[in-house]
C-alpha cells in the first residue's frame, strides 16, 4: 500500500534524513588508506546514537538474506555494488567505496548512499561516480506531481545507458516512511508514462547503482549479502530520500 505523508510528516522525515546525511559525512571523513570498514561503520553509528536515532540496517533481516545485517552502514568496495558488510577489511589507495545508511528518528526513516574514492583516484572511477550522481539528479528532477514512476525510472536508466553504464534490473528505489521499504518500487530503468502517478506527499528513496563497464551481470558473495559485478568491473551507488511536493522534489537526506 502506498502511504501519502502530510506536510508535518515530511518535516519529521527531513529530520531523520538529516541524521543519515550527517552519519554518512562522518563515515566519509573517517575513510582513508589503512582505515577499516568497521571504523567507518563506528563513525556513522556514533552520529546516529548521539542524535537519539536508531540504525535502520543493523539486524535488518529480509527473507532473502541468510543472516541479520551486522552493520549500521553497507560498505561496498570496488566491484561490490551494494549490501557490502563493514568488516575489518582495510581500505587501500584508489579504492572506490559506496556507503549506504539508514536511520529512524521519532519513528520515521531516512535512507541515503554516497560513493567516493580513497587516496589517489582513477579518473574512470570518478567518471563512474559522477554518472551515478547525475543519474540520481535526473531521477529527482523527474519526481514531480503528475509524472509517473516510469518517468523517474526512465530518467535514471536512459541516462545511465547513454553513458555506457550497466544497471541492475531487479534492484532499485522504493517508497519509504515509517518503514524503510514501502510501496511503490522505483526501478532504475523503465518506460516513460508508465506506472503509478506521482502525488504530493509521496516519499521515495531513489538509488541508481551503476556498473562501470556496461554489463548488468552480478553475483552474490558467499556472505549472502554482498552483490558483486560478475566480471570484476567497479560499481557506484548514489541515493537520496526525497518528498514529492507541490513545489517540486524536496531532498530529505541533504546535509
Ligand atoms: Mg540505502
Ligand atoms: Mg534504499
Please give a structural write-up.
The chain is of the alpha+beta class. It has a single domain, classed as Creatinase/methionine aminopeptidase superfamily (Creatine Amidinohydrolase, Alpha-Beta Complex), CATH 3.90.230. Helix content is 28%, strand content 26%. It is built from four helices and 15 strands. It has helices at residues 7-30, 37-50, 123-141, 149-162; strands at 54-55, 73-77, 80-82, 96-105, 108-117, 166-167, 173-175, 182-186, 203-206, 209-211, 218-220, 227-229, 235-237, 240-245, 248-251. A five-stranded antiparallel beta sheet has the order 8-7-9-14-15. Strands 1, 2, 4 and 5 form a four-stranded antiparallel beta sheet that branches. A hairpin with a 6-residue loop joins strand 11 (218-220) and strand 12 (227-229). The longest helix has 24 residues, at 7-30. The two termini are 30 Å apart. One magnesium ion (MG) binds next to loops. Monomer. It catalyses: Release of N-terminal amino acids, preferentially methionine, from peptides and arylamides. InterPro entries: Creatinase/aminopeptidase-like, Pept_M24, Pept_M24_MAP, Pept_M24A_MAP1. A divalent metal cation 2 binds at residues 111, 174, 207, 239.
Amino acid at each position: 500500500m502506498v502511504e501519502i505523508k502530510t506536510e508535518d510528516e515530511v518535516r519529521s522525515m527531513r529530520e531523520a534524513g538529516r541524521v543519515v546525511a550527517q552519519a554518512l559525512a562522518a563515515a566519509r571523513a573517517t575513510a582513508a588508506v589503512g582505515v577499516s570498514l568497521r571504523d567507518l561503520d563506528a563513525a556513522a553509528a556514533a552520529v546516529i546514537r548521539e542524535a537519539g536515532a536508531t540504525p535502520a540496517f543493523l539486524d535488518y533481516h529480509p527473507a532473502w538474506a541468510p543472516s541479520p545485517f551486522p552493520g549500521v552502514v553497507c560498505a561496498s568496495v570496488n566491484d561490490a555494488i551494494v549490501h557490502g558488510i563493514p568488516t575489518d577489511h582495510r581500505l587501500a589507495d584508489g579504492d572506490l567505496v559506496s556507503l549506504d545508511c539508514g536511520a529512524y528518528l521519532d519513528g520515521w526513516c531516512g535512507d541515503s548512499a554516497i560513493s567516493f574514492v580513497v587516496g589517489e583516484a582513477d579518473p574512470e572511477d570518478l567518471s563512474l561516480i559522477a554518472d551515478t550522481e547525475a543519474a540520481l539528479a535526473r531521477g529527482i528532477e523527474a519526481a514531480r506531481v503528475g509524472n509517473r514512476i516510469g518517468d523517474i525510472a526512465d530518467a535514471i536508466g536512459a541516462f545511465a545507458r547513454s553513458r555506457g553504464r550497466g544497471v541492475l534490473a531487479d534492484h532499485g528505489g522504493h517508497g519509504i516512511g515509517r518503514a524503510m521499504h514501502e510501496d511503490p518500487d522505483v526501478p532504475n530503468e523503465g518506460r516513460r508514462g508508465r506506472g503509478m502517478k506521482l502525488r504530493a506527499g509521496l516519499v521515495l528513496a531513489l538509488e541508481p547503482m551503476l556498473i562501470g563497464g556496461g554489463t548488468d551481470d552480478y553475483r552474490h558473495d558467499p556472505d549472502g549479502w554482498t552483490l558483486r559485478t560478475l566480471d570484476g568491473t567497479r560499481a557506484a551507488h548514489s541515493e537520496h530520500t526525497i518528498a514529492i511536493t507541490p513545489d517540486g522534489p524536496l531532498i530529505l537526506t541533504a546535509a
